[in-house]
Structures are given as structure tokens and as C-alpha cells.
Amino acid sequence: MNKEKKTVVIVGGVAGGMSFATRYRRLNQEDKIIVVDKNPYVSFANCGLPYHISYEIEERGDLIVVGQETLEKRFQLEIRPNEEVISIDSEEKVLRTKTKEGEGKIPYDVLVLSPGAVPISLEAEGIESHKGTFGLRNIPDLDRIMQFIEEEKPEEATIVGGGFIGLEVAENLVDRGISVNMIQRSGSVLPPFDPEMARFAQEELENNGVKLFLENEIEKIEGNTLTLKDGTVLESKLLIEAIGVRPETEFLKGSGIELGMKDGIVVNENYETSVKDIYAIGDAIIVKHTITGEDAMIALASPANRQGRQLADMLSGIEHKLSGSLGTAIVRIFTKAFGSTGLKEAQLKGRNFQALHLVGKSNAGYFPTAKDVYLKVLFDKDTHEILGAQAIGEKGVDKRIDVIATAIKAGMKVEDLQELELSYAPPFGSAKDLVNMAGYFAHNVILGLTNPIQIYELQEKLEEGYELIDVRGEKEYAAGHIQGAKNIPLDELRDRLKELDKNKKYIVHCRSSVRSYNAERILKEAGYSVMNLDGSYIYYSANYPEKIEK
Asked: E strand or H helix at 52, and its extent?
């Protein structure tokens, strides 16, 4: 029996919309599929846009994933670019649209909303007087930026916002030969990271000439003159808005479709909106965070692609449920990658959690290509649930974050990371991978074999009377050490126990917490009260350089 043919209309292309359209076509060869998008391109790589600024991606055309003609011929899609949806009449099941030629109507049987998100505009006195202000969300935005750079030849640019887009644009403007100022309202860049980890991003930016203005914002603009809250005055022809994004849902006001946090679209586990036969996917929808189960807005390409495919399956009789998102993401900042998954400490208020900081190698340490990888793992001390992870390094970051993201999705406990059998050969990994090491470390904490203390707790502990012991070698100590630390190299510790008092409390540290863990075990077995500085000298010196003596 032939099923009734439907007209399926999709508002918005790119990751979510086109993933839905092509999957739905493969499963439904007879239905009419219309894709409406107010922009000229419905299938482009918006994540790649910053890399054309420096010509790392040489050809602009490489950013167009699938051309309109291919989509129309191969998938029999009716593509309607440069057509903006202005309202929805769910009673009549009609979209009202506008183009350069005027207004029109598009009837639908099933409507899929994938409008995405748009950059949040900068609000500052005199913003209209600055003629070189741009956001970056699509190819027309990129074209305007590229044209401005070609014509105006700015020597200096200012980026407002230190999130992923701002950081990527900063790198590519510097590579283009333009000096960059970055203004961030909070005290650190890279919002998905905790401050002590974000400090390494700030260091990388500064090492590459980016001037950071943290806990600051633009108060006034007069032409190309920018006056900041702290009184700093910058001259900048090019101003990039990278404050963040908001769901592009203005056209839904009055449609009867329920909007929630930040005007995101409320959907159920079947991607259904509050209006019958209207579904939504992508950056504009409110999802449930995989770990907390709470509402979240996660504007990333991977979840949008997955959601589009899942909805196409569901509307074709294949069972799926919206399972939520972790927000797994990665960004390159000059020579280093910064990846994260799950939650950060600021999102864990009221929860009994443990943070672990590790330093390992991307692959076998004796192999010439090995690079340091810094890894932070968060877990629940009561349930042992993995809550999140952050990693930094020149290579191998994506592997560790992806493994931990998979472990979280699989419901593994933190100690289960010990059991993961990961690929190993000297050019690719280590026999004791850093992820395994995180599992070993967590298990030691759970067993009570080690008692880590966070770097931000150290000063308070020292004021309480704890004494600090640096168990690195004498040359390492002389090159730089934490103020007040007594140097007893690990290999001398057993022979120098008489120098310590069992009535006192001690904190031990080394470069990365490995040698100091061995010291902790020696001291505890000998009857001393001791804690281990988590992350040790590497993390402490990066975050508290004023506390380092040489």
C-alpha cells in the first residue's frame, strides 16, 4: 500500500537542517522536501570560516560542503536560498516568507525548524560610529570581513569575547599579520575551562602577541577609538563581535511555539515542539545535559548533525530519543589544542566532587615526537561518576577528550578508566596512557592512598601551619620554586626523615605530582600527616607566578 505523500519543509540548512534533509530523502523517496534559508548557502562549513581569514583554508569554495545544484539533483531537494521565514501559521500549516521580490507562502505537512543561532551584538555607546564591526557566523559575514581587510588594511583588530570563535579569529588575524586586542568581561578566556586551565590559553595568546584585557569591556566608541571600562583607549579599525550566540527564534514569536531559556525552542525527547507537526533541531533548541539532566543550550555542529539524522529516522519509523549532550569541544590556539567535555568546577556547586590534575605525554616519552599533555578530570566522590575533563597540549588532546567523553556516555565510573585498552605504539601512545593514569589516580584517591589538595587551597593551608616540601632535584628547585618550600629530593627523603616533625602537617609537591605521590606514600607509612599538591609545580607556577622564587 502506498503511503500518503507529504510536503516536509525545513527552515535552515547547514549542520542540522541538511543532515535531516539528506537522511530523510534516503528513507523517503517520494515525499516533497523544501529547504528554506535566508542565507545564500544552505550547506557550508561554518566551523571553518576563521581559517580562510589567514588563507590556511586557501579557497573560499572549499567552505561550501555541498553545492545547491548537487543537492537538487542528487537528493531531489527544493532549495530556496535568500528566502526568510517571517511567520508561521500553524492552523493553516503555512509559512510566510519574504525575498527581494516580495512576500510568499509555503504550505507544509511537516515542519522542521533548524534556524541555528546568531552572534550577540555588542552594546556600547557609539557602536554605530564604528564602520568595521563584524560578527562571523556565515559566508556573507566572512566575505564582508575579507573585503574590509583587503580595502582598509587594518594594522590592529579588537575582538570582544574570548570563546572559541574569538580565539580562532584571533589566531588567524595574527597569522594574517594583524595585531590583536582581546577583551573579555570575565577573568579568563575559554569559558568551558576552569580558570587554572584557561591560564594556559592566556599564556599561549600572550606568547603570540595577543593583548588581553580581562575583566573589562568597551564602554564607549568614537569612530575607531575604543574606550574600555578601566580607561584604556584602543585604536582599532576592525572590531569582531564574538561575545556568544543566541537562538535565531525571533520569527517564532506569536506562533504558539513555546520558547524557554534564552528564547531557545522547547522540545520533548522526540524533538516535537509545543505545536503539532512542528519539530526542531540544532543550535536553537534546548537540550538536556547528559550529566545533570538540566536544560542547556549547546551550539555545536556535532550534536546538530546527530539531531538532524535522528529526527529523520524518527519521522521514518526508526526509533530514537533525544539523549542529551555533553558539550564536547576542542579549539586550537596557535601551537596548542584545548579540549573539554562535560562539566567544569563552576557547574558543580553543592556536589561532592574531586578534581585531579595530571601531566603526561602524547605518546611514549622516549619517542622524539612526544609532547606534554595536561589533563584535568572531575568525578563525584560519592558515586564515582565522571563529571568532566579538560585537556591541553600540542598533540593527543582530542584522543584523550574523546575517550573520556565516550566513557561518560557509556556510564563508566572513574576507576573504570584503568581498564580501558587503548592503542599503543611509541609514535601514537603510551603503555600507560594518560587516561589510564587518570583512572589509577582516581582509584588511589577513592582508596585513601593519596590526599590531593588543590593549588588554590595551598596558601590557606600554609597559613594554617602546614609546611611545604619540594621533592624535585636540587637543580630543578634552584631554577624556580614555590615561596617557602623546603627542598628534600625524593631519593634523599628516607634518609632525611629526621629533619621532619611528626607533630607537624606537610604538603609535598614535585613537577607533576608523580614523585610527590611517592613521597606522600613514604611519609604516610612513616607516620607523618601529609597531603599532595594536585598538579604540583607545573599548574601552580602557571597560575601564581608571583609566588615563585628563583
From this structure: helix 50-53
Is residue 481 within 8 Å of 549, Cβ to Cβ?
yes
Which candidate in 32, 47, 90, 462 is catalytic? 47
Residue type, 47: C
Q: Which residues pair with 32 in a beta bridge?
A: 7
Residue 47 is a catalytic residue: yes
Quick one: pLDDT band at residue 492, thresholds 50, 70, 90? very high
- Residues with Cβ within 8 Å of residue 533, at least 6 apart in sequence: 452, 453, 455, 458, 468, 507, 508, 509, 513, 516, 540
In the predicted model, what is the mean pLDDT of the chain? Answer: 96
User: Which tens digit of pLDDT belongs to each residue from 112-137?
Assistant: 999 999 999 999 999 999 999 999 99
Rounded distance between C-alpha atoms, residue 72 and residue 478, angstroms? 69
Residues 6+ apart with CB under 8 A from 460: none
Could you tell me which residues are beta bridge partners of residue 325? 289
Closest CA to 39 of 5, 1, 69, 68: 68
> Helix and strand tally (H, E) in the chain?
14, 33
Residue 2: what pLDDT? 60
CB under 8 Å to 544, separation ≥6 — which residues?
A: 455
